């Protein structure tokens, strides 16, 4: 049974390989499976560590041999943050034992055919279905606590959210509210239907976005209907543009 038929969210997948063609081949194969949702790719171990910590993918296809920071270095640097479902991809069979000792689910030896890839992905889907929680409904209200008061804020009323140290600041029209939640927690609880990360320190309500504006330096800003302008990180530009159509 497909993951979507089981009420599970589409698989968020990261492809890590320093060879662009190898990454592209994996992305094309992944795009054929309806259970696979968002796919990101990167070409270095250092970038993979940062992406995994921030994006929390369900599945990672990880090349073993990469300059400076190889696949095993990535897992060592991540520690407890390492995803539960890792498939190593390499042209050398000498690393297979080490890969399985690190907890890898599978080991794809290049060049592999489509059937071998399908088997590896099926194993990954089985593990994700076994351990992943069912897709939860987005929260219906956010609770803002202050001395002697509880304020309930509907997510649809929020224009945008910014990180504020150990807190997050909700911008609701002209008002602002501090809530003791991390941006990652709020991004997860609000769901990705109406909200999108645009920077490591900000999330926007897509219904409040009026447009994107390109500046001479090549940087974009997200322009809200209220007139507020927010920096759009290069990392989140394409996903945001895709969602905005």
What is the compact description of this entry?
By secondary structure, this protein is an alpha/beta fold.
Biggest sheet, strands in spatial order?
2-1-3-4-5
Q: Averaged pLDDT, please? A: 89
> How many helical elements?
7
Give the total of beta strands. 15
Q: What structural class do helix, strand and pairing data support?
A: alpha/beta
- How far apart the termini lie comes to 31 Å
Number of domains: 2
CATH topology of the largest domain: Rossmann fold
SSE sequence, one letter per element? EHEHEHEHEHEEEEEHEEEEEH
Strand residue percentage: 25-35%
CATH superfamily membership of the largest domain, which one? Response regulator
The CATH class designation of the largest domain is: Alpha Beta
Radius of gyration: 20 Å
Largest sheet: 5 strands, parallel
| Backbone shape | elongated
What is the helix fraction of residues, given as a range?
25-40%
Architecture (CATH level 2) name of the largest domain: 3-Layer(aba) Sandwich
Unreliable stretches, pLDDT < 50, 5 or more residues? none
Features:
5-stranded parallel sheet, about 240 residues, 7 helices, single chain, about 30% strand, about 30% helix, OB fold (Dihydrolipoamide Acetyltransferase, E2P)
